[in-house]
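SEVERITY: medium
COMPONENT: batch folding queue
REPORTER: lab tech (J.R.)

DESCRIPTION
The queue accepted two submissions in a row. Attaching both inputs and their returned structure tokens so the on-call engineer can compare them side by side.

ATTACHMENT 1
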Amino acid sequence: MRIAAVQRIIGLLLALYSVTLIPPILVSLWYADDQTAVFVTTMAVWAGLGLLLWLPVRHRQEELRIRDGFLVVALYWSVLGLAGAIPFWYGGFLDFTAAVFESVSGFTTTGATNIVGIDDLPRSILYYRQQMQWLGGLGVVVLAVAVLPMLGVGGMQLYRAETSRVAQEDKLAPRIIDTARVLWILYLSLTVLCAVAYWLAGMTPFDAIGHSFTTIATAGYSTHDESIGFYNSAAIETIAIVFMFLGALNFALHFVVWRSRNPLAYFKNPEVRFFAAIILGAALLVTAVLTLTATYDSLTESLRKALFQVVSVITTTGYGTATFAEWPLFVPFLLITLSFIGGCAGSTAGGIKVVRIMLLLKQGGREIHNLVHPRAIYPIKIGGKPVPEEVVKSVWGFYSFYMFAFFILVMAMMGTGLDLESAIGAVVASFNLLGPGLGEVASNFATVGDTTKWIAIFSMILGRLEIFTLLVIFTFVFWRG
């Protein structure tokens, strides 16, 4: 293990990340909300800690090995979560545990919160929360598309198995730094378009910018306690639906569309078509239930609420125009099940990912065929081309660990005193990066204890790093030799 190389990168990244506190400082100065000193202090702490880590090993130019890469990724997201808690804690808004929870929830784009009374927070703190999720979302995309494939655990292995035009683009650019630059441009462009659309639809410039950050990041933080429901605007909800969907698509696919100037490339992608079909089917089913149970006054209102919440949940954004946990019959269970699916590989969304679900279903279908024709060979195909068997096996391994981790986390939550519904809701909210849950955590985590929050913090990082990236560092074989 090349500890010096890991230390050097963590220190450098943390020092560089301190620069991102300049915008919150400027917002604080503009609105004169007395938080300037908090952010200046936080910036100094981040920069100082980063330099303390970097300076002793700055001349060590060792190349990272795969094992070192796992440690860098896991440590960086953990350290960033602790560092990001400083404004909430030092500013006196939350205690230490709650502040770390809020920070980790932000950077992992989960969107779960401890805060009650969001509307009353200083503008700079509100902006900081939104920016934190935007930067976390960008980090997720770069991680999924540029970093994790090198470690052999990224969703891009699945993306490469697809057979649309995207499958021909193994890399957006020859080098990681160039790939990251392309992704940054795409991410920023979508954010700007989203912000302008929100502003034209009636949001204030401050709210439009803040919500564009968390919409593209499929993250869910809002500047209001009532989330998107605060505006009661069909236009704003429609914009949110469109950009939540775009944020949950593979960013490599965005690149192909941008380069080819052909939006039809979206619909030629089998993962996108399957994703859209799930959304449409679920929205129609939820609309039917809401209409038959007279939950809302009209079919139009039922459709509006259903479509928004289905897109919000399956993209693991977590925005709300209604509390879906209070909806009738099986609808809450259906929606949290959708959060397990999540968005597409290489996106900002959480969950198992759509392409993995596709492969699991196809593998199940193959097993049924083999029962009838045991000697026949049925290759699994996506988009007309066969998927390598090692990819199929890796998907089964991921799914098995994902569900095993889910049940272990639910039992851990119940061990803290939560009832079954709340425990499941807490794990769904944190592990699937959804934000809202069920039971006691249907709206927020403000009332649960510190132990519950620390389990949720671990769940968020575990879910964000797609399990293996974090779990591997707890194995003996990782540290041996």
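ATTACHMENT 2
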Amino acid sequence: MLVIKNIYKTFNVGTINEKTALEDVSLTLEDGDFVTVIGGNGAGKSTLLNAIAGTWLVDSGSIAIDGIDVTKTPEFKRAKYLGRVFQDPMLGTAANMQIDENLALAARRGKFRGLRSGISQAERNFYKEHLKTLDLGLEDRLSSKVGLLSGGQRQALTLLMASLEKPKLLLLDEHTAALDPKTAAKILAKTDEIVEKDHLTTLMITHNMKDAIHHGNRLIMMDGGHIILDIKGEEKKKLTVEDLLAKFAIASGGELDNDRMILSK
């Protein structure tokens, strides 16, 4: 479903601030893979997701989604293949639009929209059924402005919007980092449910080592713009935080020096 071959990305080329964010990164995701991505600050995690999404084009290498080469395809044209949830609950939704209007935008992403205006009753019923699965009472608030929702409600809505049309690839960029622990756990549980039910190929960035271990069928760790660990199958099922720290030390040649990750143990 996703094939990345030997991609490189360097920012501020030729200046004192030159930074190689991705260096010869290759990664293949099979249909239905749920891969958690972990690593310290500056490891290249968000750069990898942004490269896949087309937020910026890679310097070299190739990216293919479901057999389609999108290496030089601009971000807006890749949107029809992707669902994405950001760390900030304020991103991914239009605050001044209603809940049903936001869902309508998500449902029509990448499709020919024509001249028909408004949202049909059939569409509203469809949105209500999906909102009920969130168990937040949002199905009774279709006309509410999204800007009035709490951070957790808004992130749950964004997750639903990102997965509504069953994208070929779901990108989750630390989508629970800005939430309190109880709300974060609820969003992660909903994430697992949606990914499993719709068999979505998923990449989820997290700083939380426990979340990286307990979710998905595969874990990759990045450091210095490289993928240094790729753990799956039985090895991942038996993995502990202590194991992960030890593997990082061996693969990177040094101890993990990232307070945010260590504190999330």
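NOTES FROM REPORTER
The chain has one domain: 2-96+166-263.
No errors were logged for either attachment.
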